[in-house]
């Protein structure tokens, strides 16, 4: 009997070769991510045709190097958005982490203290935000907006000047390229970011916490009635985002080797845009971390394209970014809308 | 008594009063309103006038939020309107004439409407999530505004235009009058007709509303157009107030202030029931907060922390959990009083 | 994935110098004038300019510089968003043998071999110039109450201009800064702050604004309060953009310290010298001056921005 | 049985949602190995009692003992851990996750690399087969009909293997077959000593499955009876608190006028279909006629209703309304032709929870009139008041938020919305789902009266008795195809079942 079913299945497979390609593209779950990936590739091909030196492997790697911090940020944001929440504080928390790192290192603290401390602090801030949202029913937008004000304010309180980082560990993290075959290099931060993505993927898909995150996005009240740990998950999600912001802040301080209170303004919007471009629904419940990584790469590619273009004035730069974003989102939307 | 405490707007109003008191302590003349050169003059008037643009944007935002949407592009739309008006006035042979100014204002508001249609189309026809749809215009719109001014600050010397931002009508600042008119218009338009109910219903349950025959698509268009129009008007007021178009800074972050005002006013970001009155209180809270920073002389480096504290305070006080705690406390209190009465 | 198109690699065939310029953004009229000056001067000097706008973000600037390195430009120039944090990318540039010129704002790198020269104004000196004028102007007064309109909190010009000013006036205790608030370098900010200040401190004698725009906003607020700007309350500002100069010539502002955005021609000279292998000074100051109302009247007709 | 100690013992439970006192001093007991039905009208407090037990609502007064220990759960999670597994009244699952995930969420099998998705799917498949449901456990829950979702939520509850199984109207959208299947499972569980709390408005089901009945009325306990000692008529009396004459079946309608000569067709569909949801179908509904739609789960009844009302667009065939060919692009255009559709999925597609009863009732009428011509407040109040009275909606406060209404009352509000538009064709998809016996009779009477006054009705219900009682004609669907069109003269349930099951060719039956 097993044999017959198997045979039947094989038969249907050969019949529907086309279907196998099409099915995932039109599924509400995988469609948006796949289409983002395809469009990204298309963008690269177009860029490569237009600009010399664009379609090189190092440019791709540089996308990872330059956006490592944003990838980590987007990962944290993905958790939050999957539950249907939003976190506006991430940009300010990145700035705060760079400030704390720079100030403490300048004060002679060792990185072995500074790094964990920052991660604990930002996770704690996330915890506070999560509690505010869960216990007091404050809307995520507002709770995280308050956290954004707070983090940014604390930056100024620490110092309103930029502070350089000269600590050897940080310098090493910033300036030690990791060689790859073929004369290519990548930074430790980029590797770290990819590790974070892998862990996030595992957590979201292979742990009960991760599944509960999706459940919350589907319907919070249903998740509650199903007996899932809604409170814990909802708070934890903001802790995860806080942690990721802290880590992202560290990566950012590796990247810039300095702390500055005005840094990363508006980065939360980049992170949100990346997550959404990656196919995650803002209302929660659908989406993948890999999608968010793709989203970051899309934003990065737009940036790269503009630099390679090299002739755009400030305003055309903005219009161009908006335009590319529009084209991308509309294409994505139209391609996924064909399902139903 | 319980009714008052549990009213949605109780805590925002209390907070507003607290801020007033703080100001009064820092500066005893805070409540003084004099008549100077035939118009009202005083801190409260400043709060009203400076808060007018935020309020106007927040009114539009309230309706957008009621449909479960959000409009991040208001600042950019305002900047475009301002830039356009200034460049039209500058290019005209007679910048000081009323007709020039009226033309400029009408054209720029028309453009604002078009931008609203654009947002509406992205959201309702193409079905892009509002936050992303408006993010596009937020980014590109600033660019367009700068394109119009070529990145310069366009200073106009046109008395009729200046009136919009800092003129007076019967002693009351024109900006305040405009805000009041928009507020009343929005309130009447949505509450005296069925528009408000239909908007709320689309916000709460779009599919159910569709099945009930609500024209959700047209409604979304209308709401985004209205919001863009509000943004355009606010942009003109801001621009006229400084008699110059500053494409970079006009209305920068006004979307955050507006959203904050809406939420402080008790409208939920998940759509549905909205309160324009709440938005009014919210906008006043925010502007008073800003003014407080200036009058009390809070050092710039702690301003943000102060803002955070206030926002957290109002949110926590407004929260249902706090309400429940207060109710419990009152019950216990009453019970004790009863016991004492019996004894 | 086959490298089938070998032609047209970076660098270009002719001797035209390629300059990669990473601008901060276009956050103010001053910055736009700066950009325009660089673009125009490049065209005049026959230099191929690769321009990028970092939208006020350091990370974008780093990306742009990295991309210039990849595109193998001849010289990289940039106005750093922040002082610190440039070592990594500057080292990459150095390794790639591309000389770097800083404009407008400095970097705090300990290793000054990472850049060829820094071309720009000295913000502390600007603050000092403003302070000097104030000390002279109020030599006879017994007490002077000053309000300061700060630039964007945390930005280098705001910090340095405040510092230079404070350095000068602290010598005499009759000067007190009774209020200091940020107006974010904008007119609207300047106006709103001044409105509130005038209510709580109606008796201030002088307003020191970190740029013209905030000063222009302050003028509006002072007029609305029924006072005469430039007389009842004196005004000192920094920048000397056209609108500021106009107000100065009308006597509404009393003194302006120039901070010129027109670095373009100087920059192109430096670029050419660097490319030719000539040595340049490590620090090149922009040619700047100060203006009184009379000087403003003279200079105004020829003012470009 | 008396010597067995109760596994659940609730005493003096009170819960208030000011101003509504949902429960007042209610005692309730549940013994191992029995099925106890909780009975009461809509809004009597059944669901609230269940939610009190599982910790969804905190209780204002009273005591809850589970297995001899006093408990105070703060949420369903804790209740689950203490051995109480619950199917709540509305389907409370996650449409964005797969069927398997919905069943196993929180109890996923874990291997060395975290959750083992394959084991999970396998387990889910077996479990669903046990309920005679053969669907892909890897498919998204949201892609299934409400009935399937309800079965999935039952599967989830059963899989928890609890001491106490609580089922709040689990059968409201199930067919007779599925109900039988469920009862089989319930009996097995009962045998193994599980205590089962069952809620349903179907008296037949209640009498078939339960050993004991606990009756609530207006949040108060009326009494606790053994099923075999209480006559139905007495039960109804206890639930409603007064004699109920209507209950004696509204007399069966048979065809009064001959459709062929006397009446005009109101809606005529020829080859109407939609790819992937329903095969081209011919259907005529005459003015003043009630047409019942019968069929198994997933047979396409809902889809047909949605296409006829413009909720979904058809892609083949033509639709003639009142003699003119129409293409509906949206429910709005159907409403313009006075065709209204009341969805079976009232929570997702029906009620607007955060609005008041009044707003919900006038919504369709108002959107039909356009936003400018607001229905005057006085007229709104009249409308609301009249429907609240006619359908006995509780609380009878037009300003109450619909979200807070009991399930049955929400359904009534929804009905009121469509009735208020005075439709010419009313498509009712499971309109009596979750409605108590008294109200059901009221609604049936209402439908009959409206049809007598010329309104056409397309009546979709899983309850065949109801279909037969009301309709002049019954159309049977199977596998998204029309298989029979039967005049309802003395059709019996078993006749109908026969057609549904093996689908004698339509010609044979109608002939
Ligand atoms: N969250 C809530 N807020 C306010 N009122 C509520 C809430 N939940 C229930 N009620 C009210 O409590 C009463 C009892 O409702 P409940 O849901 O228990 O009824 P029920 O017996 O289950 O009815 P049905 O048969 O219709 O499901 C109703 O009047 C309802 O309006
Ligand atoms: N027993 C089942 N097994 C697999 N799929 C089913 C089953 N029952 C329903 N479905 C799915 O549910 C979908 C919806 O069917 P539809 O809503 O038309 O059902 P219906 O005739 O209205 O019956 P009901 O309202 O009782 O669900 C169908 O597309 C079908 O794929
Ligand atoms: Mg119920
Ligand atoms: Mg159905």
Question: Can you offer a commentary on this structure?
Answer:
With 340 residues, chain A is mainly alpha-helical. Chain A has a single domain (31-339), classed as ABC transporter involved in vitamin B12 uptake, BtuC. Chain A is 76% helix and 3% strand. In chain A, the strands form two sheets. In chain A, strands 1-4 form a two-stranded antiparallel sheet. Chain A has a two-stranded antiparallel sheet with strand order 2-3. In chain A, helix 3 runs parallel beside helix 14 (289-309), helix 5 (90-106) packs antiparallel against helix 6 (111-135) and helix 10 packs across helix 12. Chain A is globular, with a radius of gyration of 21 Å. The two termini of chain A are 34 Å apart. Residues 1-15 of chain A have low confidence and may be disordered. Chain B has helices at residues 2-5, 10-26, 43-66, 74-91, 98-125, 130-149, 159-166, 174-191, 195-204, 206-211, 216-241, 254-264, 276-296, 300-318, 320-342; strands at 33-36, 39-42, 153-155, 168-169, 172-173, 244-246. Chain B is globular, with a radius of gyration of 22 Å. Chain B has a single domain (2-342), classed as ABC transporter involved in vitamin B12 uptake, BtuC (Orthogonal Bundle), CATH 1.10.3470. Chain B has a two-stranded antiparallel ribbon. Chain B has a two-stranded antiparallel ribbon with strand order 3-6. Chain B has a two-stranded antiparallel sheet with strand order 4-5. Chain B contains 15 helices and six strands. In chain B, strand 1 and strand 2 form a beta hairpin. Chain C is α/β, with parallel strands linked by helices and 305 residues long. Helices cover 40% and strands 19% of the residues of chain C. Residues 1-13 of chain C have low confidence and may be disordered. In chain C, strands 2-1-3-4-5-11 form a six-stranded parallel sheet, sandwiched between helices. Chain C has a six-stranded mixed sheet with strand order 7-6-8-9-10-12, with helices on both faces. Chain D has 511 residues and is of the alpha/beta class. In chain D, strand 13 and strand 14 form a beta hairpin. In chain D, helix 12 (357-369) packs across helix 13 (377-390) and helix 12 packs parallel to helix 14. The model of chain D is unreliable at 505-511 (pLDDT under 50). Chains in contact: A-B, A-C, A-D, B-C, B-D. The structure holds adenosine-5'-triphosphate (2 copies) and magnesium ion (2 copies). The site of one adenosine-5'-triphosphate has 19 residues of chain D, from helix 5 and helix 9.
């Amino acid at each position: 009997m097993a044999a017959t079913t198997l045979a039947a299945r094989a038969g249907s497979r050969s019949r529907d070769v086309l279907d196998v390609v099409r099915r995932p593209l039109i599924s509400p779950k995988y469609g948006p991510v796949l289409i983002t990936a395809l469009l990204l590739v298309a963008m690269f091909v177009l860029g490569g045709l237009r600009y010399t030196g664009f379609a090189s492997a190092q440019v791709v790697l540089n996308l990872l190097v330059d956006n490592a911090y944003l990838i980590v940020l987007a990962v944290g944001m993905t958790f939050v958005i999957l539950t249907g929440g939003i976190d506006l504080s991430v940009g300010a928390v990145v700035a705060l982490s760079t400030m704390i790192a720079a100030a403490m290192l300048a004060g002679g603290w060792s990185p072995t203290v500074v790094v964990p401390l920052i991660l604990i602090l930002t996770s704690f801030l996330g915890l506070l935000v999560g509690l505010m949202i869960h216990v007091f029913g404050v809307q995520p937008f507002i709770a995280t907006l308050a956290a954004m004000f707070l983090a940014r304010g604390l930056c100024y309180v620490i110092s309103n000047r930029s502070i350089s980082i000269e600590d050897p560990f940080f310098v090493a993290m910033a300036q030690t390229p990791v060689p790859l075959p073929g004369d290519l290099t990548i930074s430790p931060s980029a590797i770290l970011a990819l590790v974070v993505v892998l862990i996030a993927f595992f957590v979201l898909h292979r742990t009960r916490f991760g599944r509960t995150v999706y459940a919350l996005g589907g319907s919070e009240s249903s998740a509650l009635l199903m007996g899932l740990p809604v409170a814990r998950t909802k708070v934890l999600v903001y802790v995860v985002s806080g942690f990721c912001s802290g880590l992202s802040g560290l990566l950012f301080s590796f990247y810039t080797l300095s702390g500055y209170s005005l840094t990363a303004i508006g980065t939360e919007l980049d992170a949100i845009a990346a997550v959404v471009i990656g196919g995650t629904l803002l209302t929660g419940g659908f989406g993948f971390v890999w999608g968010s990584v793709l989203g970051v790469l899309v934003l990065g590619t737009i940036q790269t394209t503009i630099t390679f273009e090299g002739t755009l004035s400030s305003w055309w730069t903005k219009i161009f970014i908006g335009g590319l974003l529009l084209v991308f989102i509309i294409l994505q939307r139209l391609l996924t809308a064909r399902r139903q | 008594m319980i009714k008052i405490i549990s009213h949605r707007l109780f805590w925002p109003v209390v907070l507003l009063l607290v801020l007033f008191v703080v100001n009064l302590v820092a500066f005893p003349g805070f409540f003084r309103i004099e008549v100077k050169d035939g118009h009202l003059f005083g801190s409260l008037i400043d709060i009203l006038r400076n808060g007018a643009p935020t309020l106007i944007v927040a009114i539009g935002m309230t309706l957008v939020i009621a449909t479960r949407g959000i409009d991040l592009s208001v600042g950019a739309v305002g900047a475009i309107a301002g830039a356009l008006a200034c460049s039209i006035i500058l290019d005209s042979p007679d910048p000081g004439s009323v007709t020039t100014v009226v033309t400029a204002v009408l054209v720029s508001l028309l453009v604002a409407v078009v931008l609203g249609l654009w947002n509406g189309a992205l959201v309702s026809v193409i079905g892009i999530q509002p936050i992303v749809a408006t993010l596009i215009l937020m980014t590109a719109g600033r660019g367009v505004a700068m394109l119009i001014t070529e990145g310069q600050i366009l200073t106009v010397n046109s008395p009729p235009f200046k009136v919009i931002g800092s003129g007076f009508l019967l002693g009351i600042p024109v900006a305040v009058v405009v805000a009041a008119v928009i507020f009343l218009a929005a309130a009447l338009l949505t509450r005296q007709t069925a528009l408000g109910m239909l908007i709320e219903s689309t916000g709460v349950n779009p599919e159910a509303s569709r099945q009930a025959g609500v024209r959700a698509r047209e409604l979304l268009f209308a709401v985004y157009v209205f919001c863009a129009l509000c943004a355009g008007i606010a942009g003109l007021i801001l621009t006229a107030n400084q008699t110059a178009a500053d494409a970079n800074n006009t209305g920068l972050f006004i979307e955050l202030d507006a959203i904050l005002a809406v939420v402080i006013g008790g409208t939920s970001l998940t759509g549905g029931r909205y309160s324009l009155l709440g938005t009014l209180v919210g906008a006043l809270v925010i502007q008073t907060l800003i003014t407080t920073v200036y009058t009390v002389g809070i050092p710039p480096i702690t301003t943000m922390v102060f803002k955070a504290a206030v926002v957290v305070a109002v949110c926590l006080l407004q929260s249902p959990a706090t309400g429940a705690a207060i109710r419990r406390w009152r019950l216990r209190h009453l019970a004790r009083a009863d016991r004492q009465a019996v004894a | 994935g086959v490298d089938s198109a070998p032609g047209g690699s970076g660098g270009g065939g002719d001797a035209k110098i390629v300059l990669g310029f990473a601008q901060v953004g276009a956050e103010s009229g001053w910055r736009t004038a700066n950009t325009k000056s660089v673009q125009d001067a490049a065209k005049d000097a026959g230099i191929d300019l690769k321009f990028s706008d970092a939208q006020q973000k350091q990370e974008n600037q780093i990306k742009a510089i990295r991309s210039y390195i990849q595109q193998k430009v001849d010289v990289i120039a940039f106005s750093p968003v922040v002082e610190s944090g440039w070592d990594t990318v500057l080292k990459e540039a150095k390794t790639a043998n591309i000389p770097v010129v800083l404009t407008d704002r400095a970097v705090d790198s300990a290793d000054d071999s990472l850049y060829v020269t820094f071309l720009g104004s000295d913000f502390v000196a600007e603050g000092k110039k403003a302070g000097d004028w104030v000390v002279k102007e109020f030599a006879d007064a017994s007490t002077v109450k000053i309000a300061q309109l700060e630039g964007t909190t945390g930005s280098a010009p705001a910090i340095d201009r405040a510092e230079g000013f404070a350095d000068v006036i602290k010598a005499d205790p009759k000067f007190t800064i009774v209020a200091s608030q940020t107006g974010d370098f904008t007119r609207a900010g300047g106006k709103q702050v001044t409105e509130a200040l005038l209510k709580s401190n109606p008796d201030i004698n002088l307003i020191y604004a970190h740029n013209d725009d905030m000063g222009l906003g302050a003028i509006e607020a002072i007029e609305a309060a029924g006072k005469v700007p430039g007389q009842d309350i004196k005004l000192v500002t920094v920048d000397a953009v056209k609108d500021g100069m106009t107000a100065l010539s009308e006597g509404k502002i009393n003194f302006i310290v120039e901070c010129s955005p027109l670095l373009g021609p100087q920059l192109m000279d430096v670029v050419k010298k660097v490319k030719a292998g000539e040595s340049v000074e490590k620090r090149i100051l922009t040619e700047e001056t100060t203006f009184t109302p009379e000087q403003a009247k003279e200079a105004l007709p020829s003012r470009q921005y | 049985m008396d010597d067995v100690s109760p596994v659940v013992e609730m005493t003096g439970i009170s819960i208030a949602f000011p101003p509504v006192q949902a429960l007042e001093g209610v005692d309730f007991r549940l013994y191992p190995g029995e099925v106890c039905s909780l009975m009461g009208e809509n809004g009597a407090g059944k669901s609230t009692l269940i939610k009190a037990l599982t910790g969804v609502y905190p209780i204002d007064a009273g005591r809850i003992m589970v297995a001899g220990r006093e408990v105070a759960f703060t949420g369903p999670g804790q209740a689950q851990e203490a051995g109480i597994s619950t199917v709540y009244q509305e389907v409370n699952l996650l449409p964005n996750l797969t069927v398997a995930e919905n069943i196993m969420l929180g109890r996923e099998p874990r291997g060395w690399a975290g959750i083992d998705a394959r084991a999970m799917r396998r387990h889910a498949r077996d479990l669903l087969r046990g309920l005679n449901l053969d669907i892909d456990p890897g498919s998204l829950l949201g892609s299934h009909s409400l009935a399937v979702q309800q079965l999935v939520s039952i599967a989830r509850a059963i899989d928890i293997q609890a001491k106490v199984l609580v089922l709040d109207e689990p059968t409201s959208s199930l067919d007779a077959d599925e109900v039988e299947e469920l009862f089989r499972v319930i009996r097995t569980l009962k045998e193994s000593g599980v205590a089962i709390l069952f809620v349903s408005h179907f008296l037949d089901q209640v009498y078939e499955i339960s050993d004991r009945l606990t009756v609530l009325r207006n949040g108060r306990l009326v009494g606790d009876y053994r099923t075999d000692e209480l006559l139905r008529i007495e039960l109804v009396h206890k639930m409603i608190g007064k004699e109920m004459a209507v209950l004696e079946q509204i007399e069966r309608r048979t065809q009064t006028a001959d459709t062929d000569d006397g009446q005009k067709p109101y809606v005529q569909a020829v080859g109407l279909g939609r790819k992937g949801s329903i095969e081209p179908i011919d259907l005529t509904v005459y003015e003043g006629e009630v047409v019942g739609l019968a069929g198994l789960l997933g047979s396409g009844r809902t889809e047909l209703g949605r296409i006829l009302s413009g909720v979904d667009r058809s892609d083949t065939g033509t639709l003639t309304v009142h003699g003119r060919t129409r293409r509906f692009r949206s429910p709005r255009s159907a409403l313009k032709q006075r065709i209204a559709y009341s969805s079976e999925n009232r929570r997702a597609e029906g009620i607007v929870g955060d609005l008041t009863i009044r707003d919900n009732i006038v919504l369709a009428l108002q959107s039909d009139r356009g936003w400018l011509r607001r229905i005057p407040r006085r007229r709104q109040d009249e409308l609301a008041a009249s429907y609240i009275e006619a359908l006995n909606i509780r609380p009878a406060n037009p300003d109450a938020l619909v979200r807070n209404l009991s399930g049955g009352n929400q359904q009534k509000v929804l009905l009121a919305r469509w009735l208020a538009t005075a439709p010419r064709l009313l498509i009712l998809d499971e309109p009596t789902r979750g409605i108590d016996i008294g109200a059901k009779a009221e609604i049936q009477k209402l439908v009959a009266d409206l049809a007598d006054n010329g309104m056409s009705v397309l009546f979709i219900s899983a309850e065949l008795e109801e279909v037969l009682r009301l309709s002049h004609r019954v159309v049977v669907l199977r596998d998204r195809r029309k298989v029979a069109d039967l005049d309802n003269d003395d059709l019996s349930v078993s006749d109908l079942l026969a057609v549904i099951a093996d689908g004698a060719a339509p010609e044979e039956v109608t002939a």
